[in-house]
Every structure is written in structure tokens, then in C-alpha cells.
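Section 4.2 – Deliverable D4.2 (structural model, holo form)

The reporting period included a commitment to supply a predicted holo structure for the target in complex with iron/sulfur cluster. Inputs used:
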Amino acid sequence: MKSVTGIGGLVEAVRAAGIIGAGGAGFPTHAKLAAAVDTVIVNGAECEPLMFGDQLVMESRADALITGMSLVMDDMQTRLGKPVRGVICVKKKYKTAISAIQSEISGCDNLEILELDNIYPSGDEQYLVFEATGRIVPEGGIPPMVGALVMNVTTLVQVADASEGAPVTGRLMTLGGVVERPQVAYVPVGARFGEIVRAMGPAVDDYTLLVNGPMMGRLTDDMDDVTTKTMGGLFVLPKEHSHVRRMRRPLSTEIRLSRSACEVCRYCTDYCPRFLQGHSLEPHRVMRVINYDRDLDTRTITSAWLCCECGVCDLWACPMSLSPRVIFREFKRRLKDAGVKNPHLQSELTPDARRKFRSVPTDRLVPRLGLAGLDRRPPYNPNPPDISGVCVKLDQHIGAPATPVVRAGDKVRLGDLVADIPENSLGARYHASITGEVASVDDNGIVIRGAAS
Ligand code: SF4
Ligand code: SF4
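Output (C-alpha cells):
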């Protein structure tokens, strides 16, 4: 176990390294570490189909994972003045990862492994908090409100690296789909999709790109788009693939289909992970609003704030393939524009008694998405894709965009600071992810041309 530099030392090292949550929305980790909790939970579920990077991280860097976790727990323990429990949540089927972690934690009384079933969305932090502690995160709340902190495995490895002075400049990503050379490889932050796709070798002519998995990811055709610190996967899919067409269905079509096909069977509600946790989210009611202009009470509409957009309702539960999720997304957009905040804040919650029997088995979900042939772990490629340049975006995190500290023409080396946190703001720092010359600096980011290009 390492010691950074006493109280505040870990937070400062993490801030300096530019760490943001690697598995989620990109909340700055140094700010997250300010919480005072009695349980630290490691998210090693990697529940999005097609993704394998975290699994490889747990197998190959279990020592760094446990170092990162111990640093966080030590820091927390010192501030709290009482013992902190650590729970490492890993899918039961990741046997190699489990044995690698087991050998690292033998003799640590406060660390334990919680083996998870292969279900979706087992990586949802509210699901993990309940499984690990039996506590339910309040509506509209976050895990520290019930004394828990959930951290992704890649984030914790970055914490260990930060304690040695290494900033975040890239990460392991799954590069796959319908390609000649699927792989798990290290990719620098800001790499152009076009260059990564060339390294994979698309096996179809007319394709689109899936960023970060088929359940909660997004599609893009923009080959100039770039990787971020929160990106774990990039996949090539044929444009005509059924899942691509499903993801591209416009809102107007969703509404029209809903009006003609919704049976108000309520399967979407019965399988919704938030409903099953006791939150007042009932997607079938929102469909009634759309379909029959009924239940137009404010609380039904504002319940959209409780939807985590996991995709269980539309991609698993609905027999008519309708999407309450898309409707909720639109409601959220309109509520935000109108300045309406979430009024649902209940904290006295009881999980639904049928919760255990309403899990979504990933083995059956993947074929339903039409992706069965692609959900195989690709080999690790120790030679990262050939990247000629990067564009380090300044707003990969939640908070104020970073302020550039370099100018066009500056020479930078891998790991040099290129953008800092604006004063008195929540934010994150960014570092050069390759060695080269700064080609341009603007609101889109910092473009660095590689030394060899
Ligand atoms: S599951 Fe589908 S058909 Fe049933 S209520 Fe929900 S949206 Fe309507
Ligand atoms: S996407 Fe659907 S299943 Fe998931 S939280 Fe939202 S309403 Fe519930």
C-alpha cells in the first residue's frame, strides 16, 4: 500500500493527474473523493455488451487496482476516523480477474469481493450500492447520500498511477464490431475515430460507429470525432444493422409507433431497474400521456428525471419495441429548457419484492440486439493503433471547460499539462496524450501533431 503525502495529498495527486470517472459521465474524481462514506465500492461489472477493457484491466493490473482502492480507503478512513469497508464487485464469470484480485487482497480484512450475476445493468451504481450494502440511493440522489462511493476499476488504476505522478493520457479500449482486427488496445486521449477504424479494418463498406456499447452508447458517422477519458469502446456496425436502425429511429416515429402500438401492458415498468428499486418511475404511465393525453399531471411528466436511460424498457421489456426511454429523454430536455428541477426526492423507499426475478440476463439480451456474433472478447494488442495526432477536448468532464495553458507552435511531451482547471471551478486538467507540436488551440480542444507525422 502506498502513502501519497498525508491528508489532502491523494486529492491533490488525483486533481493534478486530471482523473475523471472513467466509466460514467466524467465527474472529476478529486471532487468525488471529498465525500465522507463508510463503504467504497469498486465497479468491475462492465455490464455493457461488447466491452472488455475493464476485464483486462482487472486481470493485468489487479495490483494497481488494489493500490488505488487502498489509497482511497486510507484517505477516507483518516478523515472519518473510523474503519471503511471496501467491496469489489465483479461478475462471477470473470474468473481470471477474480483470482488476480483475490491474490492481491489476501490478508486484507476490510476488502471483499462480491460476485455478480451476468445481468444488465449490473454496473449501474445504484444497483451496486444496493447489492453491496442493502441501502437504496434516494430518488434523484447519489451514492454518498447513503454512505457509499462507487468507483470504476480503470479510475482506481489511474488513482494508483497518479500516486506515482503519472497523469491520464489514454486508456484501454475495446475496438470491435464487424472488423478484420478486433482488439483491446491502449488508445491515447483525443485519437481520431478515422485512424482507429483504419487500425481495426472494417469488414463492411457502409458502416457507422457505435461509441461505448449498444445499450447506453451513441452512434456517429463523424470520423473526425475523437476519443475521451470516459470512452471504453468503439465499434463498427453496418448501417443497415437492425440495432443501428432501432437507435436511429426519430422521436416523431417513436411517438407515432407508441400511439398505434402501445398496449399499456406495463412490462416496461415491471422491468425498469429504478422502479424495482422503489423509485416512483413508471414508464407505462408516461406512454399513456403520449398515447391518450391522459395522466397529464406534472408528477408523471417530471418522473422523467428519475430515468437513467439504461434502455431496459425499450431494448428488453417492451413486446412492441417501443421506447419510453426516448420519450423520457425528450421530456428531460424540455424540463431543463423550462428550468423545471426534479421534484422527486423520496428517500424512504422499499424495493419491489419481484426485483430478483426481473433481472435481464445479458446472455439473452445480446442476441435480442442482433449482436450475438460480436460479443466475443478480442485479443489484447500490445501495439496501439498508429495515431498521427490528437485533439484533446477541454470539456470531457462535468463542470467548467478547462483553460488551455499552451499555444500553437509549442512543443509538448507526453504527459505535459496542456489545460488547467479555471479558478474556483469544478473541472479537470488535461495533458498531452502524445509527444509533438501544438497545431491549434480553440474552443473545440487542443490539436497536437505527433512528432513522427
Ligand atoms: S411495455 Fe411497451 S407496450 Fe407495454 S406499456 Fe410499455 S411501452 Fe407500452
Ligand atoms: S430507460 Fe427505461 S428501464 Fe431504464 S430507467 Fe429509464 S424508464 Fe426505466
